[in-house]
C-alpha cells in the first residue's frame, strides 16, 4: 500500500525542516500544499524553502505557477493526484506538507466535482472586481446564492469569485453543487500535526518576519506593487507593505501588522486543523517518535 505522509500545522511551526528529515528517512519526495508557495515570483514573503533545503529532497508544487495565473484548490487536487500516481510507481511513501487547509483537504478528502468555467466569464468577473470593488461581488453573490453568501468568507474575493462563476456558468447556485462527500483514495493517508506552546509559536513568527525583512521582503513587495490587485498578492506580508507604499501607514507599522496578522493567521489555521480528528499531534522536535508512529501506522 502506498502512503501519503501529511505534515501540517500553522505558519512558523517548523514544517519545512522536519518534512525534509522525514522524507529522507522514508526515501520520499515532497509535495508542497502551500497555496502561496506555488507562485514563482513570491519567495521571501511566502517563506519558500532555501536552495539548500530544496537540494536535500526533491520538491513539487513550489514556484510552478505565476502570480498572474488563476489557480485554486480544485486545480491543485487534479494536478497533485496525477503527480502522486507517478511518484508511487517508484516510492512507497510521499510527504505532503503545508498549512493551507483547503489544499490539504482537496487531496485527502477531495473536492466536489464542479463544471469547467468559461475563461471569458472568469475574466469578466475578475475585471468587475478590479473596477467596481469587492462590494459589487458581495451583492451579486447575495442575489444569486444566498446560502453561499451566508457561509462564505466575505473578505475573501477568491472564494466569492468561485461561487459566482459556478452560479453564472450553470444557472444554479454554487451551494447546490457542494455535497461534502469524501472521495476514496487508493493510498494510505497519515496525518501528522505539529504544535508548540502559543508563546513559543508567536515568538518564532515574530523572528521569522524580522528575518524576511532582513532578506529583502520590502524590495520584493515593491517589485509587485503594480500587481497588488491580484488575488495572489492578497497575502500577509505583501498587503501590509502595499498599504505602506500607498502612504497610509509607516514602514514600522507595516512590519508590526505583518507580525500581528501572521499570528492571527496561525490562530485560524490551528482552529481549522483542530476539527480534523484524523490528525495525530507531535511537537516538531519529536522526530524519532513521529518516524516510529509512521512505521507503525503505515
Q: What is this structure, in a nutshell?
A:
The chain is 51% helix and 9% strand. With 298 residues, it is an alpha/beta fold. The protein folds into two domains: 226 residues, 3-Layer(aba) Sandwich (Rossmann fold); 59 residues, Orthogonal Bundle (Histone, subunit A).
Give structural notes:
The chain contains 13 helices and 6 strands. With 298 residues, the chain is α/β, with parallel strands linked by helices. It has 2 domains: 3-111 and 181-297, Rossmann fold (3-Layer(aba) Sandwich); 119-177, Histone, subunit A, CATH 1.10.20. Strands 3-2-4-1-5-6 form a 6-stranded parallel β-sheet, with helices on both faces. Strand 2 (30-32), helix 2 and strand 3 form a beta-alpha-beta unit. It is globular and about 55 Å long. The termini are close together.
CATH domain fold name of the largest domain: Rossmann fold
Helical content band = 40-55%
State the distance separating the first and last CA atoms: 8 Å
Strand content: 5-15%
**For this structure, what is the CATH homologous superfamily of the largest domain?**
P-loop containing nucleotide triphosphate hydrolases
Q: Can you name the CATH architecture of the largest domain?
A: 3-Layer(aba) Sandwich
Order of strands across the main sheet: 3-2-4-1-5-6
Question: Nearest-angstrom radius of gyration?
Answer: 20 Å
Name of the top-level CATH class of the largest domain: Alpha Beta
How many beta-strand segments? 6
Q: On the 0-100 scale, what is the average pLDDT? A: 94
> What summary fits the major beta sheet?
6 strands, parallel
Spans of at least 5 consecutive residues with low confidence: none
Number of domains: 2
Question: Helix count?
Answer: 13
What structural class is derived from the secondary structure elements? alpha/beta
The outline comes out as globular
Secondary-structure element order, N to C: EHEHEHEHHHHHEHHHHEH
Amino acid at each position: 500500500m502506498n502512503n501519503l505522509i501529511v505534515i501540517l500545522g500553522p505558519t512558523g511551526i517548523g514544517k519545512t525542516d522536519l518534512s525534509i528529515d522525514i522524507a529522507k528517512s522514508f526515501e520520499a519526495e515532497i509535495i508542497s500544499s502551500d497555496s502561496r508557495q506555488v507562485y514563482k515570483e513570491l519567495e521571501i514573503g511566502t517563506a519558500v524553502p532555501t536552495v539548500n533545503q530544496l537540494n536535500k529532497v526533491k520538491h513539487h508544487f513550489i514556484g510552478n505557477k505565476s502570480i498572474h495565473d488563476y489557480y485554486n484548490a480544485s486545480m491543485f487536487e487534479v494536478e497533485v493526484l496525477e503527480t502522486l500516481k507517478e511518484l508511487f510507481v517508484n516510492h512507497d511513501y510521499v510527504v505532503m506538507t503545508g498549512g493551507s487547509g483547503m489544499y490539504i483537504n482537496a487531496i485527502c478528502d477531495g473536492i466536489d466535482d464542479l463544471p469547467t468555467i468559461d475563461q471569458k466569464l472568469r475574466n469578466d468577473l475578475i475585471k468587475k472586481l478590479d473596477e467596481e470593488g469587492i462590494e459589487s461581488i458581495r451583492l451579486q453573490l447575495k442575489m444569486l446564492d444566498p446560502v453561499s453568501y451566508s457561509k462564505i468568507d466575505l473578505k475573501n474575493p477568491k472564494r466569492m469569485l468561485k461561487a459566482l462563476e459556478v452560479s453564472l456558468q450553470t444557472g444554479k447556485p454554487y451551494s447546490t453543487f457542494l455535497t461534502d462527500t469524501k472521495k476514496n483514495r487508493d493510498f494510505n493517508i497519515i496525518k501528522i500535526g505539529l504544535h508548540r506552546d502559543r508563546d513559543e509559536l508567536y515568538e518564532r513568527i515574530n523572528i521569522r518576519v524580522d528575518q524576511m525583512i532582513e532578506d529583502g521582503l520590502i524590495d520584493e513587495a515593491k517589485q509587485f506593487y503594480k500587481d497588488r490587485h491580484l488575488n495572489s498578492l492578497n497575502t500577509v506580508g505583501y498587503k501590509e507593505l502595499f498599504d505602506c507604499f500607498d502612504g497610509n501607514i509607516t514602514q514600522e507599522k507595516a512590519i508590526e501588522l505583518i507580525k500581528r496578522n501572521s499570528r492571527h493567521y496561525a490562530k485560524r489555521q490551528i482552529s481549522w486543523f483542530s476539527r480534523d480528528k484524523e490528525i495525530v499531534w507531535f511537537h516538531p522536535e519529536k522526530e524519532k517518535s513521529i518516524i516510529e508512529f509512521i512505521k507503525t501506522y503505515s
